[in-house]
Design brief:
A six-stranded mixed beta sheet has the order 7-6-8-12-15-16, sandwiched between helices. Strands 3-2-1-4-5 form a five-stranded mixed beta sheet. A three-stranded antiparallel beta sheet has the order 9-10-11. It contains 33 helices and 16 strands. 53% of the residues lie in helices and 9% in strands. Among the domains are: 184 residues, Serine Threonine Protein Phosphatase 5, Tetratricopeptide repeat (Alpha Horseshoe); 134 residues; 222 residues, Rossmann fold; 30 residues. The radius of gyration is 32 Å and the shape is globular. It is of the alpha/beta class.
Length: 858
């Protein structure tokens, strides 16, 4: 994939307008021209480096196949190293190892100037693979090789010392790391990254050692480097990227200085002064970080960036909470809640906003179709890359071609987005109008229900409870058992194969459920009593349904009776939201013209052995292992009897039909299997009936949903694991539900685990019963669950069978368009009339028969 000459690459690409329009001559002796080419490539790489646009960066550099590079050429060597680091920085550690093996076999490290790099590159792999001791060993070997070499520069030695410092830091020995970072600063004068990071890490260590003046000196020097030596200005005075290296680095350095000020405040009489300085830096850091994210084109890049800097928002909330403890100023809680919301699903909110801008800014239809087509093509290429990944080798031509396609599409989408922003002010305004929620909306919402929002940092739990227009706040360090308890409880209730239905298991489940209730809700028990709850979870809290938390802990359980436990379900109706910001936008969205009609589907799952089409090859193994959902057709028929709309089964329930028809209905009900991909949830799939006459493969990916314009008021995903996926910092669970929200849907009924086919029908039937009474979605689902648990016998009352369903998003009642039903009294009266009429006719015929001579006895 990456082992040929980049010059050959550019020769192949000479007609591509996004690079250059002239042929690139290549020969062993023509390095002036070749160096110019590589310098341009480096320039392109560096543009992407600080944007975290992984798709572009990976696609752009991976397409280089450096077989014919003269390894004596230093720029070519640097290019190899740059790509190697990009692979590792992107989390592609396996590909990094493979790349190392490939250039090793090509003899790269046999060149005298490169001999020391063999251990250095391997150490980098170990660094990103969390093998710190092994990495240090290889750095020591690299340093020994360098001391015997005449080719190494001061920068080379400084780089080795920098990574030695990193390894010692990650081994928890910060004091040992300090001299290595100082050596790196002295030696790597021209390397801004090493200069900035070395200063920052020294500052952090000195802060923990309470050497505050020295710590401030180092972090201020780091900020000066980020600002390119310019005087530090007020944030509002920094107009654009030209005045600093990057918004990303500026945000990171401001957070580091905020930490230094917070630590300086401890135990000082003028602590409020330092806390205010800390807050100022933390808030400016958030603004810089948001500016950085607005420059990203793709949702995956925003998710990656949020994961990389997951502490920005929680540390800013920490700064606010420290000042709140001193001042008791409620205005600080409003700020803290806003920052909590800025963290929540920012990638999803931004994606929804971009989609809204495309469809609602008056852009000509043909232009909208062009953008949709480009994004779909990009999704298809990404899907192919994903599917091929397990079989791809480092020099595979297929991946090269896919990366070329990917780069073309990425470049085209970026250019089209730029044109739209320049030519359509409304588009630009809507796209960038991603603001924290209007707290007036939250305050109004809190008059009808208790809003509970969590922020989970690496060590603390922050809880906001908004009731009757007032914010209540609590923050505390959680103990070592907290996260483990969440994960253990989730495992105990979500996998039927792991459930023993024993007394000991029930006791453990009850203990965990009550412990989590005490931590999460008990401090606010009086505030939330008998109120509907809107839960906005964070991190691992997204894994569990709060309905199963126990208000009271049973002393000693002597018999198995799941229904008798004091579940929160018995006290509160519960719904969930990814964020209040997103929920506000969902609530204000218009629904389509058929808002009260339902579109329900229950596909068939027959084996695909008879299908020979290309689109079925990837399906057979996965689909042939899917059994029939026995209750799915009953469920869809039940919905069809209740509501007007379109009901389809078996072979009709195809992906093509869904894509063409679903946007015409206000309620979507999908009773089907899913294929959940926890590693890359954008490729989680709803499994439809395959249609041999179309190009659709019967698998609807999450990323495909994002390109649909659905606008449904309610989506019921009665399938396996529809609410589950990959947990990402600031984004919650990324799975199928996310795709429906991106498609403009307002609310979803989803499942956190593979639901029981037998009990699903009863839960769904009860839900629709209450929904038809104009009840809220949270009440409808909660009441259905309560009725189920009361009626369930024995093990069937276990939370596995009922707690998996959750209501997400807009909670308002919806007007359902019920099918006209003939009243029972009318039916009974009609039957009685027929019976009486029939009886009268029979008696009349009998009398007539008695008068007939033919019936007289002799």
């Amino acid at each position: 994939m990456l082992i040929r000459a980049c010059f050959l690459l550019f020769f192949l690409m000479l007609k591509m307008p996004f690079l250059m329009a002239f042929e690139i001559p290549y020969s062993k002796g023509n390095f002036n021209t070749a160096d110019s080419v590589i310098n341009k490539l480096f320039h392109k790489i560096n543009l992407f480096k600080y944007s975290n646009q992984q798709k572009e960066l990976h696609a752009f550099v991976t397409k280089s196949v450096l077989d014919e590079v003269d390894y004596n050429n230093s720029l070519s060597q640097d290019l190899l190293l740059q790509h190697f680091k990009n692979l590792l920085n992107s989390g592609l550690v396996a590909e990094g190892y493979a790349f190392y093996d490939s250039i090793y076999k090509k003899g790269f490290f046999k060149v005298p100037a490169n001999s020391w790099k063999e251990n250095y590159w391997l150490a980098l792999c170990h660094y990103f693979d969390n093998k710190d001791s092994l990495g240090l060993k290889h750095l020591d070997l690299a340093l020994a090789d360098m001391q015997q070499s005449t080719y190494c520069t001061r920068d080379d030695f400084g780089t080795i010392h920098f990574y030695q410092g990193l390894f010692w830091s990650y081994l928890g020995q910060r004091e040992n790391a300090l001299p290595f970072f100082r050596k790196a600063i002295d030696l790597c004068v021209s390397n801004s990254y090493i200069q900035i990071e070395s200063h920052r890490r020294i500052s952090s260590t000195l802060t923990l050692q309470k050497r505050h003046d020295e710590a401030l000196q180092y972090i201020n020097e780091a900020i000066q480097i980020v600002l390119n030596g310019n005087k530090e200005l007020e944030f509002s005075s920094i107009k654009n990227n030209t005045s600093l290296i990057s918004w990303e680095k500026y945000a990171s350095m401001l957070q580091s200085r905020a930490f230094a000020y917070r630590e300086m405040a401890r135990g000082k009489s003028d602590s409020l002064h330092y806390l205010n300085l800390s807050l100022q830096d933390a808030e400016n850091s958030i603004l810089a970080f948001e500016k950085h994210k607005r420059q990203l084109v793709f949702e995956s890049d925003v998710i990656y960036t949020n994961n990389k800097y997951k502490y920005f928002y929680s540390k800013t909330i920490e700064a606010l909470s420290r000042i709140y403890e001193v001042t008791d100023n409620d205005a600080l809680l409003y700020k803290a809640l806003r920052y909590s919301e800025m963290e929540k699903v920012s990638a999803l909110v931004y994606s929804v906003q971009r989609s809204k801008a495309l469809y609602q800014s008056g852009i000509p239809t043909e232009k909208v179709h062009q953008m949709v087509k480009l994004n779909r093509q990009l999704d298809e290429v990404e899907a192919l890359r994903f599917q091929e990944q397990a079989n791809i080798r480092i020099n595979d031509t297929a991946l090269f071609n896919l990366n070329m396609q990917l780069y073309h599409l990425v470049s085209e989408i970026r250019e089209q987005e730029k044109q739209l922003e320049q030519q359509n002010a409304v588009y630009s305004q809507i796209k960038y109008d991603v603001q924290p929620p209007n707290l007036d909306y939250v305050m109004e919402l809190s008059k009808h229900k208790a809003v509970v929002e969590y922020v989970l940092s690496s060590e603390k739990l922050y809880t906001f409870v908004v009731v009757d227009g007032k914010i209540h706040f609590k923050h505390e360090y959680f103990d070592k058992d907290f996260i483990a308890s969440i994960e253990k409880l989730q495992q105990m209730i979500s996998n039927i194969k792991n459930i023993a239905f024993s007394l000991d298991e029930l006791q453990t489940m009850a203990d965990l459920s009550n412990y989590l209730y005490q931590v999460l809700l008990s401090p606010f028990e009086e505030l939330i009593a008998n109120k509907p709850l809107l839960i906005v979870p964070d991190e691992q809290l997204s894994l569990i349904p709060f309905e199963i938390l126990l208000k009271t802990k049973p002393a000693k359980i002597s018999k198995i009776n799941y229904a008798e436990l004091d579940y929160l379900l018995y006290h509160n109706d519960i719904s969930y939201a990814y964020s209040l910001n997103l929920m506000q936008k969902q609530t204000s969205e218009k629904v389509n013209d058929h808002a009260h009609q339902v579109f329900a589907m229950a596909p068939a799952y027959k084996k695909l052995a008879g299908h020979t089409g290309k689109q079925y090859i990837a399906l057979r193994d996965a689909r042939d292992n899917l059994g029939m959902l026995k209750g799915a057709q009953k469920e869809v028929k039940m919905v069809g009897k209740r509501l007007q709309g379109k009901i389809v089964f078996d072979q009709e329930a195809s992906e093509k039909l869904f894509k063409s028809q679903a946007g015409n209905y206000g309620i979507l009900h999908l009773a089907m299997h899913t294929l959940v991909n926890n590693e890359d949830p954008l490729y989680s799939k709803l499994v439809f009936t395959p249609d041999a006459d179309t190009s659709e493969d019967g698998l609807l990916n999450t990323y495909e949903l994002a390109n649909l314009d659905l606008g449904a008021d309610l989506v019921v995903l009665s399938a396996c694991n529809t609410g589950f996926g990959k947990l990402n910092r600031g984004e919650g669970i990324i799975g199928l539900t996310r795709g429906f929200f991106q498609a403009g849907c307002k609310s979803l009924l989803a499942t956190l685990w593979s639901v029981s086919d037998e009990t699903s029908l009863r839960i769904i039937d009860g839900f629709y019963t209450e929904l038809e009474k104009q009840q809220t979605k949270s009440y409808s689902l909660s009441e259905s669950k309560r009725n189920y648990v009361k009626q369930a016998k024995g093990m069937w009352a276990h939370p596995f069978f009922w707690a998996g369903y959750i209501s997400i998003g807009d909670d308002k009642p919806i007007v359902t368009q019920a099918k006209e039903r003939v009243p029972y009294s009318f039916v009974f009266g009609a039957l009685m009339f027929l019976v009486l009429a029939g009886s009268g006719f029979w008696l009349y015929k009998r009398k007539k028969a008695g008068d007939d001579p033919g019936f007289q006895s002799n």
